[in-house]
Structure formats: structure tokens, C-alpha cells
Fold this protein.
Amino acid sequence: MIYGIHWDLHSPLAFAISILPILLIGMKITVEATILGFLVALLLGLVLALLRRVPLRIIAWPTAVAIEFLRDTPLLVQLFFLYYVLPKYGVTLPALFTGVLALGVQYSAYTSEVYRAGLEAVDRGQIEAATALNLSRARLYRTIILPQAIPRIIPALGNYLVSMIKDTPVLSTVTVMEMLNLAQIIGDRTYRYLIPLTIVGALFLLLTVIASTVVNRLDRVLPKEGVPLR
Amino acid sequence: MHWTGFIAPLARGAWITAEITAYSTVLGAALSFVAGLGRVSRSRAVRVTAAVYIEIFRGTSLLVQMFWLYYALPLLGPSLPPMASGVLALSLNIGAYGAEVVRGAINAVPREQWEASTALNFTRRQALWRIIMPQALAEMMPPFGNLAIQNLKDTSLVSLITISDLTFHADALRNLTLASTPIYTLTLLMYFGMALVLTALIRLIERWSRRHLAPSRGAHA
Amino acid sequence: MSPPAEPGTAPDEIIRFEKVTKRFGALTVLDDFDFHVAPGEKVTLIGPSGSGKSTVLRILMTLEPFQQGRVELDGISYHEPGGKGPFKASPRHLREIRTQVGMVFQGFNLFPHMTVLRNIIEAPVAVLKIPKEEAIERATGLLDLVGLADKKDAYPRQLSGGQKQRVAIARALAMRPRVILFDEPTSALDPQLVGEVLNVIRDLAHEHDLTMLMVTHEMRFAREISDRVCFFDQGRIAEQGAPEEIFGEPREERTREFLQSVLG
């Protein structure tokens, strides 16, 4: 019994049906962790991307190294680092928030690259034409560069959102009660792993298919050339 | 315990990590080609099978796949040692992503190359291996490199099915000494170091492939 | 437009290059280069590729810095005393210079996410602070001038190359420049579309006050509209003069060889 819900061991089908509500509670945590983690990644990635563009080498260069470091080291170890080291310095967060932070930190390395690539993909001629027309720097970004970069950035960010969904089970290692953790607990108590783990796999497939479909739709709807911001 | 005392046990774990990375990258690359070519096969059954494999392994989570192979599969019959479960899960996962790379690179070769091959009366198989694949291979290298780095990072998950890799050793040391700051800092640095070595290796392979596989790239042959 | 600081008499030069050297790494593009243009003059720059013609235009538009020498627009130096950065001038100073100069690019460089009208009014509204209604009125007039009044709501992707370049000309004119630069305006066009763009430029050549600099490979057109033709070779002007002289009886062997190779 978990969350007051009992399982029914009479038949595989009855077992599957009886544990589904438990796993759906876990799915809610999975979705929450993804959304929060992604928000952290969007903001932190923007900060990293901007720091990297600072024309001072003592700022830009360490930022580039930090991005590379975050991208090249495993999420699981970054999570353990935050989970076990932060409390030593007086920062005690609930497990879910530590997990969200770890997801956000790892993915900020990816999102910062997406921002950078999106800005750099705008044709040089656009910047030259804007210079010839004497547009101010703020205006150049607002009406020429960002409108053309954003439609390229959004689908790439969307793909990382889908990817983050699949990384949330790692949070089970620090006691976050997401889907995989609940399936494990059910398995440990009933010695039946096949059905809970298979259902969790199917639920992940469902989540990623939905998320990818939304991202693809968005990609198709977005005008490729962008829309000028007022 | 002084932090230098952690280096030796962590290095032993890092060696296991390197081994697992090597096995699963090689096996994953093989799977990438099998499934990627399967996706462009003329047989519908092969295409569908490959697509189902790719969708399942890209659509679900690696940790779920690993736990499934480790905990659930034995209940169906075949029981694998932890090492085999870990390497297999990593390979199947990275192979599904790699298959999309292979398919994409083959499709990126201009149609005209196929048409010219047909005009010269190559068989489809000859055209694929002699004309199309050499051009596609060079295109595949950079994304394959990214997947190899991803795979290195993903190997840390095998610690959760009792394999004593770098992450596993770090966790064991932390349990023993509670010195989490130096242990995890060293662990992260070791992963970073391995990633840098792997990146350098990938650059070498990329340069080699550019020189030997598609020397006329950009010349619009 | 604010009148430039004028000395006692009106200068007979609007553009002046004095001993200008421009390098890209080890490559010297302009070498101790001298060049003068009178107000209202129509000058065509010809010569082999890599001879520095486009670089002259790009320096005038402040798209490229230069290392040595002096460039002036209407008596005002591009470099400022104590100016910093590659351009040796403040952004403010560069913006001041650009108010006098417009440019038409080989690759059009229209803003793909804006309609034709918005492409034209964007800078007048944002930079010159012209009220939007007035900017639209003027843009409509300019579109009439280039023969595209019916395309004002189209997006660049819906236009042919020739139409795109005519919009780009209207866009440059909307800023009321005193100097307009054409950097190979017809090189990216299909041959049958070249004529419509040249017709627009020909009309502009009749504007007495407008100074025009054009880099082109259209030799017949250059002969027809130019007051002066400059033949560039290896970062310098090897020969210059009235079109009849340059095309009729070039003095330099290099000029003759070049003209033979392009005229066939």
C-alpha cells in the first residue's frame, strides 16, 4: 500500500489496474519537476549566454569553461554534489528542489548554446543593412535579430524539454517520489517488477510523444522568418 | 582522510567507467547502423521494426530501460549479469539516437547522387556503399561525437545497478568518510577530464574522416 | 537633417581618402590609397575582384575599419582624436556619419520578417523619428518611384531578385542620404532582371545633389551614367577619368587587359 492505495495481486491485469493510480501520482511529480527544472534552465542559460558575450575576456572565458564543464559531467553526479554538498554550507533544500536545481543547472549549459547559436545564425547581411540604416543597437536586437532568432531558438529549446522529461527518473536517487521511484517501491514490496516498470516505460513514452507533438506543431506554426516586435 | 587519499579509489572507478563507455559506444555505433539502414530499407517490415525500436528507446527514459533489463527481464526468463544489463541498456539507448543520425546523413546526400548512380547502372546496394555512404559518413561524425560524450555521462547510471564505476566509488567513499565536498569535486573533475580526452579523440577521427571519406566536400563534385 | 559643420566656403569634395591603408590580416586590401569625390558626382569603380573596390564602399558605410590614413565625409574625419576601438571613433560619431550615407548591397539584405513597407519605414521611424504616417507617405512615393507600389504588403520572399533590389534602393533612399553606395547591385540577379534595377539607378543618376558611388561589372551602364570611372588594381586606383577616356582610349596596359577580359 502506498498513498492509501492497495494493490490487487490476483491477476497481472488487476495488478496493473490497481497500481496505475499510484504511478499517476508519480507522473504528476515528474511533470512538475520537468517544468520547474526547465524554467531554471531557461533563465540560467540566458545568464550564461549573456556572460559569454561580454567583451571582457576575464568574464567570457571562465563562462565558456563553466558551460563546457556543466555539459560534460553527468547529471547524476551533479545531483549528488548539490544534494550532499549544499547542506554542508547551510543550504538545505527539499529533495524535489535540489533535483529541479540539478536539472536546471545541467540543461542551462544546453540552453545557453541554443541562445548563442540562434543569435549567430542571423545572416551578417542583416546586421550590415541595419548598420547602413543607422538603427541603434537596442533597435537592431529588438526588431531585426531577436525576431529572426526566436523562431529558430524555440524548437531547439523544445527538444531539450522533451529530453529533460526522460532525465527526471534520476531524481529518484535522492528520494524524489516520481514515477520510477514508486515503481521500484512497488516492485520491492511485491517482488513484481515487470508490470510496474513496463507501465512506467509506457507512461514516459506517452509524455514524450505528447511533448514532441506539441514542439513539432509549434515549429510548423512559427513563421520561419519571424515577426517584428513592436 | 586527506583528499589525495580519494584519488586512487576514484581512479579505479574511472577505469571501469572508461571500459563501459568504450563497450557501449562501439556496440551502440553498430546498432546505429543496423537500425539506421533499417529505416531506409526497401522492405516495409524492416522499416517498421527499426522505427519501433527507435521510438521505444528514444521515447522512454534510459534509467527505466536499465532497471527494466536488470529487474524485470529476469522475470521473463533471461537473467543478465549487471555489467551486461548496463552495457546493453546504454548501447540500445545510444543506438536509437545514432540510428536517427545515420538515417539523417543518408537522406542528406543529394538525390542527384542516387540518380547518377542509377544512370551508371550501379545496383542499389553498390550505390549505397560506394557512393552514398562515404559522403554520409563524414556528415555523421560530429553528431556521433556528441552522442559519445552523452554516453560517457550516461554511464554514471550503471552505479545504480551495483556496477562499481566512478559514481559508485564516489558514493561508497561518501558513505564511508562523509567528506562529500572533495569526493564529488574530484569525481566531477575526473568525468570532465575523460570528456576532454574523448573530445580530442573524436576530433582526430573527424579530421581523418574528412580527409579520407569526402575530400571534395564543398567542391560540388 | 542637421547641416554639417561647414568651413567658410562650400567644400568641393564630399568624400576624401588620404593615404588610407586597410589590411585583413596579412592581406593588404587598400594600399596608401587616395580618392576624392565632388558633391553630386557619379563615380563608378571597376576592376578585378579583390582589388579593393567594395572595401572603399564598406569603409565609407562604417562597416569596416581602416588602419592608417584619413577618411573624410564633408570635411568630417571618420577617426576621432582619442577615439577607441577598431574604428577609432565613438558609436555616436559613427552614427552621425551614417546619417549622410546609404548603401545598397549585392545580396539585398532585406529584412525577411517584415513587409516591403515596414522594411522601408523601419529606419525613418526609429532613427530619424519621422511620424509613422509621414514615413508611410514617403515610402509609398518611393515605391512608386521604383515601380513597386502594388507590393507594399508583400514579404521579401514573395518578390523576384530584381524587385527585392528595387525595394532595397527605396529603403536606402528613405533615409535621405547625401551619398548612396551601390555594391555590385546587379551581380546576384538573373540576367533578365538586371535591366529593371539599372533603370531605377539611371533615374537616380539625374538627381543633381545625390552623390553616387557604384561598384559594378555592367560596363555599358557605367559608361552611360558615370561622370568618372576609376579602374582599381591591387588596392589602388590605377587609372581614372571620364568614361569616354577609360573605355575609349585607356592609357594603362592593365586597364586595357581588364576591359578586354570583361567586354570579350
